[in-house]
Design goal:
Oligomer: single chain
Structural class: alpha+beta
Largest sheet: 8 strands, antiparallel
CATH topology of the largest domain: Jelly Rolls
Shape: elongated
CATH superfamily of the largest domain: PITH domain
Amino acid sequence: MSKTVLVSSASHFNQLLGSTKILVTDFYADWCGPCKAIAPIYEQLSAQLSRPQKVTFVKVDTERQKEVAQKYNVASLPTFMIFKDQHVVSTVQGADPRKLSELVKKIAAEADSDGLGGFGEASDSGTGWLGMGLPKGYDNVTDQVDVRGLDLLNADSNFGGARTLFDASKPSALQGGKGKGSAQAGEETKDWAESDTDEQLMLFIPFQSTLKVHSLHITSLPSKDIGAEADEVPMRPKTIQLYSNRAHVLGFEEADDVEPTQAITLQQEDWDTTTGTVKVDLRYVKFQNVSSLVLFVVDGEGDGERVRIDRLRVVGEKGSKRELGKLEKIGDETGE
């Protein structure tokens, strides 16, 4: 279903301007051949990049909405204008698919990263860096993670904790560095998590609202230091078990006796070679009303003794807000 909004009046356009950070506008006319030619590209961009209250795509029929077209001096068709915080920041005249696509994707990416606090705190501006594109019809809902209730078992304290995994920033390993500068001058914090005594990790993720979870994006960027032995190199997760709607984190022994909601085995070719990210598709029918997840990394890919995770993103749909406090178990954890 199209996410593009057809502007019905000048006041409607002004209302849209004030309700989103980025407004991508297509000024067109029904008689305009080039407008019709580029329309499918525009709709595709709209489906891929629309974000509630962040990036909105609209169409303005210049024959019907002459007041809007005149206000912004539209002299040729098609004309695409991109507004940021209610101000025009870019204009593309003519049906140039490549130029339009590059410009819109660039500004949409900026909208995802503008004004974000660290460590996954909820923000109206979004949840920052993404290692993979979003599937059509779903959003990055990582801002719904209740960071105050996160729990990560068997994590090496020399590395980042659970909040690090939901940090809004791009992993330092993708920026050519080994860590991020800390508050103490001359120090670096390792902005990823690694397991401690063995390759297993157990992460409890509570949410601020019930979610429909479509998939998880896990980023893991192991690096091999010169001279390091094979078993000293951290591994990417291989076998993962997920448990939905638990009231608290599971113990490792307890997990052996509890049937997971879903078990996943990742292959080496599943990982994106550029961002070090894998998309974990969930059995959507089993993750419809999710108040919490437990992610259990059972083992890693390789001969190492530790597993590394740099970032974790949650993709799906937001549901109703829950009252913070004790989590309630919702539905049958093992049934369809």
